[in-house]
Amino acid sequence: MKALRNLLQRSMGARLVALFLGLLFAVQVASFSALRASLSEHAHRALPARLDVGDRVFQSLLDQRAQKLIDGARLLAADYGFREALGSNDADTIVSALENHGNRIGATESALLSTDFRLRSSTTQHQVGLERLIAHLSDKAMTGGSASTIALLSGVPFQAVLVPIKAPVTVGWVMMAFPLDARLAGDMGSLSDLNVTLVFRPRADAAWKVGLSGLPASEARSLADGPWEGRLARMTPIDVGGEELGVRAKWLSAKDTSADDGAVVALLALSIDDAVRLPGDLQVALLGITLLGFIGFGFGSIFTARRVTQPLRSLSESAARLGAGDFETAVEGLNRQDEIGQLARSFERMRVDIAGKQEQVRRLAYWDPLTQLPNRLQFRESVQAAMSAHPDSTIAVIMLDLDRFRSVNDVLGYHFGDLLLAAVAERLKRSTVRPDDLVARLGADKFALLLTSGDSALGLAVAQRVEASFDAPLVLEGHTIDMRASIGIACWPQHAADLDMLLNRAELAMYGAKRRAQGAVVYEPAIDAPASWTLSLLSELRQAVERHELRLYLQPKLELKSGRLIGAESLLRWQHPERGLVPPIQFIPFAEQTGFIRELTLWVFEATAREWRLLHDQGLDLVLSVNLSTRDLLDVKLPQKLATILQRHRVPERAICLEITESAIMDEPQRALAILERLSQAGFALSIDDFGTGYSSLAYLKRLPVNELKIDQSFVRSMETDRSDAMIVRSTIDLAHNLGLSVVAEGIESAAVWDLLRDLNCDHAQGYHMSRPMPAAELGAWSELWAARPHATAPLPALHLH
């Protein structure tokens, strides 16, 4: 040591070597520290995301196990022998079936419950907590049909499901469960690098117990006692056995720690120390660089020192930039052929890989992968940016929703639906010509366009161009599809003061277009009223039935040749206590969407049958028509329900004509045809309403068991002045007669149209020229006034009846 000190004192070269070797050592230490700090910072940012992924993986495992239980329970519920034993109340067979099916899927606990969720039979040995478990499952099953949960049975965590037994109504419930054992931790370990520890306690004031864990017992116990409670939404660092773990708690049972039902929590953990620790190959590389640097400094002095330290500093800065999230700046020193160059290229590959993943994440966050259009998030940000960049301009948002898209998915499959959405996206992109305009897919079959400088007139023009683009059918994989869209337009600041209001009102206008069957609608304040009303419309409709607010109206149907009253169409009106007489257009479409139309149809049918009996007793032998919706034609019990009502009121089937629109038939033609066949065989007369406005074909028309066609009023009303409408009416009458059907023309508003239809041999007439719809009780008086007229086309004197 004394000799070395003497050498440094005597030799300037030795001092230089020692100085630069010291500098090299310092630089290497600084680089190592910066790299470690960068990795530590990056690890602490990345670990919560890895825990999120582990959380989803663990939830997926639980869902798979629950689905396995549900499938096993459903298989048992569908077993013929089990259902026979259930019907005969064979307790031994029921218990045997529960045991066999439970063993088949690994369920250790099985039970049969009555329809009111009382225990009938079981194979369980765990009685403690069973009643609370059944009560918890039954609460969920009351709303969802099937239910699953995790709870304690006799102090052991179990995963349980509850499935209804239907024949076809619910006749009982099957409950199956198995304990959460070490296989769950093993499955979690095989799918991810996270450890899962399951802890539980029977009461809120009890200590946590370890159920299962991928950690050693002592470490699992320390983890259970750690400060994770109250931090369920974020990662909690916990020191376990001298190692720092990042822990996230996932509550598996109901989150009510004050209850005595017990609690089960999964603790997902990964090592923070492992994430921060430098990889072995990187340590070896740094050590090699250090050794080479010392040798180079020993021989190259200042020149070598500069060539070594400067690149190291550059790499240190690159590491810091990577740690700070700068993935755009390239790493320096890539052209070097020495070890530093190798390290620089390794850093560069890491930078490029991370930048690519960042770009991929960003694209997934802002772009729709199917159509390659901006998604809802990017569209919102673009609209907000346009509002900020052009505070004095007008911005238009066009929102559109494809009509009948669900039918495409149902008939041709989701793959074809995806192809259709991509084709629609291409057409929408061609519909915008300005570079600043933006087309986006908001989700499902909903799209939007942003016009960064345009008013409602420009928005309407673009919407019309979009409508025109749908005129040409889409041809995909040999299928030709005609598509239409409902389009809504809203402008800022004319219609909205902020972003959310602008998008909301564009959507309201779109739904307004859908309700009105119009292609494009510009937002107006009147649209908001029905939209807000629909929030409580379903409950008000139910109350309307219970409070007898519904009214039956009848519109007469007459024979054209003689002018004789032969029937009437039953129409529904709602006498609202606050809004007065509500038009059908304001609640019938909503009832069809929610399925409540079935209850309204049965109400109208019941009222019609009751009114027919009263009219018949007055000497009027009429045929009353009742409209059926798409939902009605999907109800396989409809013929039986209608027959029961007719029997109750002593009304023959021939007295009722059921009217069905073309669109109702074409939504599910095969199923609708089967229902119509049964109705026809039962003796009901059937009529196709609004003929000519739907999508039916002659191939379906000739197969339908119908008795008459009703020509839509859009053709009848203008046939006196529009030659095309007159030709359509003439052709429809000839077609119907050739098929052996009678023809009803609705929408007659003048004597001239009456005469034209009579000359064309149309059979029956309906319209305001004869009478508007009237309360059902007034039809008898109206018929007397009508019969007293001098001739069929004479105007009826004004009546106070309606």
Overall number of strands: 27
Helix content: 40-55%
What's the arrangement of strands in the largest beta sheet?
Answer: 18-19-21-22-23-24-25-26
Mean pLDDT: 78
Number of helices: 28
Q: Please state roughly what percent of the residues sit in beta strands, choosing from under 5%, 5-15%, 15-25%, 25-35%, 35-45% or over 45%.
A: 15-25%
Our Rg estimate from Cα atoms comes to: 38 Å
Report on the structure:
The protein is flat, with a radius of gyration of 38 Å. With about 800 residues, it is an alpha+beta fold. The chain contains 28 helices and 27 strands. β6 and β7 form a beta hairpin.
Explain briefly what this protein structure is:
With 802 residues, the protein is of the alpha+beta class.
List keywords for this structure.
802 residues; alpha+beta; 27 strands; flat
What is the fold's blueprint, element by element?
Blueprint: H1 2-10, H2 12-78, H3 80-88, H4 91-105, E1 109-113, E2 119-122, H5 130-144, E3 147-153, E4 156-166, E5 170-179, H6 182-191, E6 195-201, E7 209-213, H7 217-224, E8 236-240, E9 243-251, E10 263-271, H8 272-276, H9 280-324, H10 339-366, H11 376-389, E11 395-402, H12 405-412, H13 414-431, E12 438-443, E13 446-451, H14 456-469, E14 474-476, E15 479-481, E16 485-492, H15 499-516, E17 520-522, H16 528-533, H17 537-546, E18 550-559, E19 565-576, E20 580-582, H18 588-594, H19 597-617, E21 623-628, H20 630-633, H21 638-649, E22 656-661, H22 662-667, H23 669-682, E23 685-691, H24 698-701, E24 708-711, H25 713-716, H26 723-738, E25 742-746, H27 751-759, E26 764-766, E27 774-775, H28 779-787
Parallel strand pairs: 16-17, 19-21, 21-22, 22-23, 23-24, 24-25, 25-26
Antiparallel strand pairs: 1-2, 1-5, 3-4, 4-5, 6-7, 6-10, 8-9, 9-10, 11-13, 11-16, 12-13, 14-15, 18-19, 18-26, 18-27, 19-20
Helix pairs in contact: 1-2, 2-4, 2-6, 2-9, 3-4, 9-10, 12-13, 19-21
